[in-house]
Design a protein that fits this description.
Layout lengths: L1 E5 L3 H13 L2 E6 L3 H10 L3 E3 L3 H5 L5 E4 L6 H10 L3 E5 L6 H14 L3 E4 L6 H11 L6 E9 L14 H4 L3 H17 L4 E9 L30 E8 L4 E7 L11 E8 L2 E5 L5 E8 L2 E8 L5 H15 L8 H20 L3 E2 L1
Parallel strand pairs: 1-2, 1-4, 2-3, 4-5, 5-6, 7-10
Antiparallel strand pairs: 7-11, 8-9, 8-15, 9-10, 11-12, 12-13, 13-14
Length: about 350
């Protein structure tokens, strides 16, 4: 299998490394910055170009990875599928659920396989929690917590990440979508019925006063734009009565002994499981012999990007989705994001 990598930034590098790890050949690297494309292409003996026209015409490349700023997700995914390529599309799927519908329509009309890059399904803790839940050990799952609080984690202050026109949103659409997808995936993909949420921008109005120790996707551009949310919170009501408590922040002053402060937990009537989003073990609480019990499950190390690529290759070959997020699931996440933003603007719950 040969793939094209569209976007030679940090995420493109990770996807290229994942290809190498699972024996997938990188045939092309496309980036508007052709010098950056050439650097990544040289490392993988691939061809570099500034635009994808020649990639579309290359019949030996059957699939592409789209890892570019959010505003380009929809047009490039559509172009790729219309050119006959299967697509691994980085999250978020698009700016809105309506845009997701446009992408879905093209996927259906062209018959191409489309997978959304929710890599936390493939982490040691994500995969381990799913394995535990699928045994039935938790019983009926009625609530999930999905929290990630970064103390100072605004990426590329003043760059495309903080520009709504290019990113579509802030912490919610950057990190929150991972949490929403993971919670829904672990809970068995229940449908949302209502959302009540709030999005905040508390650091964007004073960028020059933003104190930080490091900044990925930096350095800061103090003449740039910061018109997106840096913090979002929501209660998501699901079909059947279950709920998700979502908390996500690029930057906040939450006292915590560790950074980032993250927890994902699934509560069932027979047991519960929790883990740190970037952790290496699960904590389980249940009852054993009519006694309360707690178990720490150590997990083997995992390479989520390589596992995701392996799953994508299998899906392309079988023409069926595996663990990776389908476009319908990606659209569901985006519909929840849309509802959180709408609820925040109107100060009212939003029903589906």
């Amino acid at each position: 299998m040969r793939v094209g990598i569209i976007g030679a930034g940090a995420i493109g590098e990770k996807h290229a490394a994942a290809c190498q790890a699972v024996g997938v050949e990188v045939g092309w690297v496309i980036d508007r910055d052709e010098a950056r494309a050439a650097k990544l292409a040289d490392a993988h003996h691939a061809t570099a170009k500034a635009d994808p026209e020649h990639l579309w015409e290359d019949g030996s490349v059957g699939a592409v990875v789209v890892g570019v700023p959010n505003c380009f997700h929809k047009p490039l995914a559509i172009e790729a599928m219309q050119a006959g390529k299967d697509v691994l599309l980085e999250k978020p799927m698009a700016f809105t659920a309506q845009e997701c519908d446009e992408i879905l329509s093209v996927a259906e009309s062209t018959g191409r396989l489309l997978q959304i890059g929710y890599a936390h399904r493939f982490t040691a803790v994500g995969a381990g929690a799913k394995q535990v839940i699928d045994t039935g050990a938790l019983g009926e799952i009625y609530h999930a917590k999905a929290h990630l609080h970064l103390r100072r984690g605004v990426p590329g202050l003043g760059g495309w990440f903080t520009n709504k026109q290019m990113a579509g949103g802030g912490a919610l659409i950057d990190l929150g979508v991972h949490l929403i997808d993971l919670a829904l995936y672990l809970a068995g993909e229940p449908k949302p019925v209502a959302v009540s949420g709030k999005a905040y921008n508390k650091f964007g109005g004073r960028m020059k006063d933003y104190v930080y120790e490091s900044m990925w996707a930096g350095p800061p551009n103090y003449n740039g734009v910061f018109d997106v949310d840096d913090h979002a919170t929501a209660m998501i009501m699901l079909e059947g009565g279950a709920t998700i408590d979502l908390q996500v922040a690029w930057a906040c002053n939450l006292p915590s002994p560790s950074a980032p402060d993250s927890v994902v937990a699934l509560l069932g009537d027979k047991g519960g499981v929790s883990f740190e989003l970037f952790g290496d073990h699960l904590l389980m609480r249940s009852e054993t012999a009519r006694l309360n019990s707690e178990t720490r499950l150590a997990l083997p190390a995992a390479d989520p990007m390589a596992s995701q690529m392996k799953d994508f290759v299998k899906a392309v070959e079988s023409r069926e989705h595996g663990v990776g997020a389908s476009p319908v699931e990606g659209r569901r996440v985006q519909a929840i994001v849309d509802a959180i933003y709408k609820s925040s603007e109107t100060n009212r719950p939003v029903e589906f």
